[in-house]
Amino acid sequence: MDEIDRRLLDTLRNSGRETYAELARRVGLSAPAVHDRVGKLEAAGVITGYHAAVDTTAVGLGVTALIGVLQAESSEQDEIAAALNRLPEVESCWFVAGEESFLLLVRVPDVAALEHTIGRLNRIHGVARTRTTVVLSTKWEGRARPLDDA
Known about the structure:
Layout: H1 3-14, H2 20-27, H3 31-43, E1 63-71, H4 77-85, E2 90-95, E3 102-108, H5 111-122, E4 127-134
Antiparallel strand pairs: 1-3, 1-4, 2-3
Helix pairs in contact: 2-3
């Protein structure tokens, strides 16, 4: 990956709806050359997808929580991960070092739904307990760090 690929990725991460012509203008290449580079980045698995950023409150998901999951000693990580994947309210799941085994980003409509989700999490085979932090407000989220700083 060269400097042009990094600039393309930076642009796409911040504005994924740019046309190939606009991307080409930003990096100093032709649109066909940019199209080819983006295709190669997709094929190599560097670009894993495209999505729309959505205001979660506007779509009825007003409560965000970070939930740590402590794994029971005799349980299997992959089985717990598979069970977590079946819960649609779990938006992101990370396997982490520390006291907790998993850290989850959960979005639900209200506190009652969060309580229900926590109950479902605690009933998953292999979950010893959970620890929940409710987000009061979001100052920023999903900020795309410039790849040149990496």
